[in-house]
Amino acid sequence: MLEIDHLVYVTSNVTASTEELTNKLGVAPIFGGSHIGRGTCNALLSLGEYQYLEILGPDPTQEFQLPSERFPEIPLLRTWAARTTNIIQLVKSANAKGIDFGSVRDMSRIRADGIRLDWELTTGSGGGLGRDNNVAVLPFLIDWKDSPHPSIDAPSGCSLVELRIGHPDYKTISGQLEFLNLNIPIRYATESSLTAVIDTPLGQVEIS
């Protein structure tokens, strides 16, 4: 069984976007840590049990820097992760159905308190059909193995009500989501899009 694990809000400035989202959501995300050797860092906000929002952007403290064009001028909800405990087998099964999650990669980061998190994720988000306009409507897969889930110690007070998907070929995407046993509302749209509906101390808010 797959579950929504986290939503990835991509920005060119993690600090500035964290401040903007604090004002919008009424809860301040906390710095998560650096992805050493990847050139990125993040801030996190819990969206309920085993779900969270990740604010992802370039890490100015690292020597390795990704090209600036990798990050949008206007922050956006670019992708999302689905959680599994059997990532290798699921990737094989999905590939047989034409859903390309790419390869499985080991990842890690050091939390601000010094604790190391290790996890596995797929390098792809289900193939090219789910991508255009820099938004991946199909998820990438993640397995946290024995690491504590980031939502546990991320600031709380918000909860994910719904994730909505828009895509030109929504019928095909719907079938792929059904195969993955993910019940995500999807509609026709001229471009791919993700919209998160979140309950916050300031009321219900949408992020896209």
Strand content: 35-45%
CATH 4th-level superfamily? 2,3-Dihydroxybiphenyl 1,2-Dioxygenase, domain 1
Question: How confident overall, as mean pLDDT?
Answer: 92
- List the secondary-structure elements in sequence, H or E: EHEEEEHEEEEEEHEEE
Would you report the number of β strands? Answer: 14
From the spread of the alpha carbons, the general shape counts as globular
Distance linking N and C termini: 26 Å
Question: Can you describe this structure?
Answer:
- With 208 residues, the chain is α+β, with helices and mostly antiparallel strands.
- It has a single domain (3-207), classed as Roll (2,3-Dihydroxybiphenyl 1,2-Dioxygenase, domain 1), CATH 3.10.180.
- Helices cover 15% and strands 40% of the residues.
- It has helices at 14-25, 87-96, 170-179, and strands at residues 3-10, 30-35, 40-46, 52-58, 76-83, 104-111, 116-122, 131-132, 135-136, 140-143, 159-167, 186-188, 193-200, 203-207.
- The chain has an eight-stranded mixed barrel with strand order 1-4-3-2-6-7-10-5.
- A hairpin with a 5-residue loop joins strand 3 (40-46) and strand 4.
- It is globular.
- 36% of the residues are buried.
- The mean pLDDT is 92.
